[in-house]
Amino acid sequence: MGIEQTREREQRWQDEWNKAKLFEAVPKEGTPKFFCTFPYPYVNGLPHIGHLFTMMRVEAFARYKRHRGFNVLFPQAWHATGSPITTAAMRVTEGDAKQIGILKENGVPDHEIPLFKDPEHWIAYFSPRYKQDVSAVGLSIDWRREFITTSLNPQYDAFIRWQFTTLHEKGLVQQGRHPVVWCPKESAPVSDHARSVGEGETPQEFTLLKFPLDGEIGTFLIAATLRPETVYGQTNLWVGKDIEYVKARVKGPHGQETWIISAACAEKLLMQERAVEVIGKVKGSELLGKRAMAPAVDRTVPVLPSHFCSPDKGTGIVTSVPSDAPDDWMGLHDLQQPGAAEKEGIPLNIVADIKPIAIIKSSDLGDMAAVRICEDMGIKSQHDRAKLDEAKKVVYKKGFYEGTMLVGPYAGEPVQQAKDKMKKDMLDSGKAETFYELTGKVVCRCQTQSVVKIVSDQWFVTYGDAEWKRKTHHALDGVTLYPEKSRQQFEYVIDWLNDWACTREYGLGTRLPWDERWLIESLSDSTAYMAYYTIVHSIKDIDPKLLDRRFFDYVLLGKGTAPNMPGVDVEALRAEFMYWYPVDFRNSGKDLVQNHLTFFLFNHCAIFPEEHWPKGIGVNGWVTVNGQKMSKSLGNVIPVRKLTEEYGADATRMTILNGGEGMDDPNWDSNFAGNLHGKFETLLRSCEDVTGNTEETSTPVDSWLRSSMASSVQHITDAMEQTNFRTAIQLAFFEINHALKWYVVRTAGKQNKKLLRECLEAQLVMLAPFIPHVCEEGWRKLGNDGFVSVAPWPAVDTSALDPALDRREAMVRQVADDIQRQLEKSAAPASVQLFLAADWKREAYAAFDEATKTTRNPAEIMKLLSATPLAAHGPELQRLVTFLVKGGRQPQDVPSAVQEREWLESAREYLESIAGKKVEILEAGAAESPKAQNGLPGKPAVVLQK
RNA sequence: GCGGGGAUAUCAAAGCGGUCAAAUGAGCCAGGCUUAGGACCUGGUGGCCUCGUGCCUUCGCAGGUUCGAAUCCUGCUCCCCGCACCA
């Protein structure tokens, strides 16, 4: 059977499911419910193997829960909020080759490309195709509930407005100051996607240090630094001789001041809510040799020339801390070379006396980190740029993370803590101010260089709120995590999370209800929408104006009274919400723990009563492909469509879930996927083999098979409950197959087909969450009606469980192996004799068992046994004890003599079929040969009789 | 650097103090079934031999605890996720 037929078969079953409305979730009073979700995908592309894994974890769990008798709600929707689609559409408009290439890769024909200039077309194009790909996998989603986000969907829009209004009224959305990357030409923030240079660059907070200029009251030299904790090591200031600085009148918190800064800096300050008025110019060279009062240390330092000051970076003036800044150390070093000061026009005596001051100590670099690193790296001058940049990074890291302050009010404290304290002290006393600078150059797509702008009207969700955090911790306590070991990460994130800027000026989304200039940002409008899933299918066509405050308050919170809405049974909506909520399982990749999944918890705590807080959260790793990390550059990002086309839905489903579990990165194994096809056919053939014959026969091995199945069911159920799907697959597919094979071999053609049928039936149900199409097919072959997809999960028959039977079969198998091995070495014996172990060995086992209750020390055990009559067996006993101590067979697992004989007798027929000879079972004493004495309890000696 | 998760045989991945040379699957090798088969079945797959109640070497590296460590402890190295205003 080829792949085409497989896909036809899969399609047929999917059609059947749809026809039967198998996955349409309808509340059923008295039936327990299970509500599971994964984050709706962003629709700027098609699903790939990474999405598949997250979806499949929910899918397998959803199907499992159906077998367990739960009424399952498994919905899916589409996310379009945010800027990527808008930006991409703009790029298409501009004719961007890269963007158009991406569309082509996604299967868009050339003539349709222009349509993608419209953001809405992206959604219209990708959402149905995404759905198509996902449907081909056979996901059991209730598609009646699909929807799209943003104002394009006025009903959803109304819901998000309600959510934010609710948060706002609780005081959890507040306005504040916020630095953004800004294009001065377009007067708009420049998102990552809208940059031609500088993706990933962000505003960074610098401290502006203010140096009162000697002899000019009210005038300050301003230096920007990222390391305010190093002020105690300041020895001088650096300026560029040829840089044109400006004198600017700046209104500071302590009145009018005159600042000397670069012209570019003055402009930047204007964007950062500072009143700045340029009143004059001053050249760098004019400042040389002057002195200014260094903040915090309160001593004057000279202004010296350097070649690394840039008017575009900071203020163009740099404070010099030669002990901890490699640039400064080399600048000083250069100036102290013979003749250098004179050449620069600086009196030698100013320069000669300057020495680095030890201020921070770290174990690796000592207390003169910059001096040390320059030596280590062989840096020769301030022009050795590449090396200096590297050195700066190292010194900064070591200093910040491992350093301890040596001087100042925080001497003895780690730099990490002292840094913020020093900064705050200087800010409070007016010796410093803050300033934002980009981490790197950013150029807007309009080719204008971007700057940092402080916006003061940004809205924040106040995740930093202590009370809210407390509540969320409490909510987390009530959440079952899959796997549980992700809990620590969640606890950490709840504490770490701070206020989140939740509005944007650009992109798609919902407008902030009380401040319509703003759009709600994409990570913020996806935090409580699971509630919307419960009612979406009933309100899709309602006039959105009716979906007001009162409506959602009543339906989702039970507040107030039901509004009267023509054609809508509001009470029924309320009932449906109450039936499905809370969310029982939400699954996502581990990268979303630090934002989305935690936001989800926070928002539920804020909006809903405790009974509706989330019950379960799943976290999974990142898919690797054939052992390699998935990436565009490796070209191994496999679209879901390609997988179903090549392997079929079932093989795809099973392979991806077999790839891994827990938070490990799962691996997609193409070989495994390719082999499954044949294995499925074998499974179906087995189903055919047991049909027709329902006559109850019985073999001695039946009880073992029953026990083995019961144990498998138990273990598989445990694994499923913990979303350990890989384990479940291994057990349900491979372990059960092994057991069935052994049963067939062991019964030598005389199987109890009724029992086999029962086992296969149970196996099909347990595999149905993973390979439902094959299982439906097998289910019918077994002669069953209805769908295996909703068949009850097999119960664990605890009465059938008997570990002794496993030991029996293990023994029989071992004996069979031993016989075969002996036969290989010997030509045509007349018969096979099995000699049971001598009685004293069994006694020794028992004595050993007894002895281990007091000690596990071999020497002591031997001593105890030597005190018994067993001592007569001398060296042989010693050998036995050594064997047992090393962990040979456990004495308690060994059968009694009577039992062992019984077991062997019952398996005699099988053993004879293996040997092709008569098999005799004898006592050790029945023969003289040394070989016959070799038997151990549970492991008879095999002797071939000529 | 910090928080979290990891490192097991050719590969993927179980194991988490003694039944561990280590489940299972893939790959590879040999054999069977077949007109043929990337199907299916059987066996093998760290090394050595006296083929066993055998010996040696192995579970990131180095130490330690223990009669006994892949499993526990300490230190180190490396990998993945995150360290945010972005989907």
Mean pLDDT: 88
- Number of helix segments? 34
Shape: globular
Largest sheet: 6 strands, mixed
What's the helical proportion of residues? 40-55%
Structural class computed from helices and strand pairing: alpha/beta
Query: Which residues sit in consecutive blocks of at least 5 with pLDDT less than 50?
Result: none
Number of strands: 31
Strands ordered across the widest β-sheet: 11-9-10-7-6-17
Computed over alpha carbons, the radius of gyration is 38 Å
Strand content is 15-25%
Question: Termini distance?
Answer: 50 Å
Structure description:
The protein is of the alpha/beta class. Helix content is 43%, strand content 16%. It has 34 helices and 31 strands. The strands form 9 sheets. It has a 6-stranded mixed beta sheet. Strands 2-1-24-25-20 form a 5-stranded parallel beta sheet, covered by helices on one side. Strands 4-3-19-21 form a 4-stranded antiparallel beta sheet. Helix 21 links the parallel strand 24 and strand 25. Helix 1 (3-19) crosses helix 28, helix 12 (369-377) crosses helix 13 and helix 15 (466-477) packs antiparallel against helix 16 (487-496). The structure holds one RNA strand of 87 nucleotides.
Task: List the keywords.
single chain; 946 residues; alpha/beta; six-stranded mixed sheet; five-stranded parallel sheet; RNA-binding
